[in-house]
Amino acid sequence: MSAEGELAFGDLVAETRARAAADANYLGSEDQRGLLEGYLKSIVPDVRVAWQQAGQGSYFDRRNRVVALELPRAGAVAPDETAETAAVLALHESLHAAYSGDVGSKFRMRVGVLRRESREFVEYLFNHIEDARVGHRCAADDPSTATFLEKFEREALRQQLVVANSRRNRFLNALLERLLLGVAPAGVETEVATALAEAEPHIAGALAGSARESGLAALEIARICSAEGLDEPPPAPPAV
């Protein structure tokens, strides 16, 4: 992704950390925003970076070509760590501009006829698969980002795990681990392991493909969940 002569991502992280450690007013400043935007333009020339107020989250606004980042603030975490997190988050959100394309009419048509709950489940799967796919693409194209993205993905996994109170939720946790860490977890129950093994060709195809494959994988994995009975809570234990 970064051409010869351009700032490597590790250098960006080192620079933003140094500025945050030296200047108490750096976090959330125009200086920080401009540094991040300058790096991202080496990946996607027409992208901009804008600060979002706390609580509004971070995302890529595809229509306006804006990476919207939640305003970083000093707190319990050291300022240089906060600055690094903002840099990696900016990179992560920009990957959708760099690597995500049209999901395809087949996906849109099949999702469009689903009931709301099923549609939301497929969209949930698609978002996680696509996040993993663009992260894999970035690390392959620019190995200097790999260590930072892996750290980001491990933290994302910790935050995104759902309460394991149903077979479907335990499958989703296993799926997230496979997507973000690259390996299927050991020690899961038989139904979850079976469904994950059935989903593996679709996962692998999506990670090696485009947004179109991510969409089709999401549809297939939702179908597998339904076929394997992973959309229902586990039965209550028998009365003693």
Describe the structure in your own words.
With 240 residues, this protein is mainly α. It has 2 domains: 9-82, no CATH class; 105-227, no CATH class. The protein contains 9 helices and 3 strands, in the order ααβββααααααα. The chain has helices at residues 9-22, 30-40, 79-99, 105-112, 116-141, 146-160, 167-181, 190-207, 211-227; strands at 48-52, 59-61, 66-70. The chain has a 3-stranded mixed beta sheet, covered by helices on one side. Helix 3 crosses helix 5 (116-141). The longest helix is centred in the middle third of the chain and has 26 residues, at 116-141. It is globular. The N and C termini lie far apart (61 Å). Mean pLDDT is 87; it is low at 233-240.
Observed structural traits:
240 residues, mainly alpha, three-stranded mixed β-sheet, 3 strands
Query: What count of helical segments does DSSP give?
Result: 9
**What is the oligomeric state here?**
single chain
User: How confident overall, as mean pLDDT?
Assistant: 87
- Anisotropy-based shape: globular
State the secondary-structure class.
mainly alpha
**Estimated radius of gyration:** 20 Å
Low-confidence stretches: 233-240
Total domain units: 2
Give helix and strand order, one letter per element, not per position.
Answer: HHEEEHHHHHHH
How many β-strand stretches?
3
Termini separation comes to: 61 Å
Strand order of the largest sheet: 1-3-2
Strand % is 5-15%
Main sheet properties: 3 strands, mixed
In short:
60% of the residues lie in helices and 5% in strands. It has helices at residues 9-22, 30-40, 79-99, 105-112, 116-141, 146-160, 167-181, 190-207, 211-227, and strands at 48-52, 59-61, 66-70. Mean pLDDT is 87; it is low at 233-240.
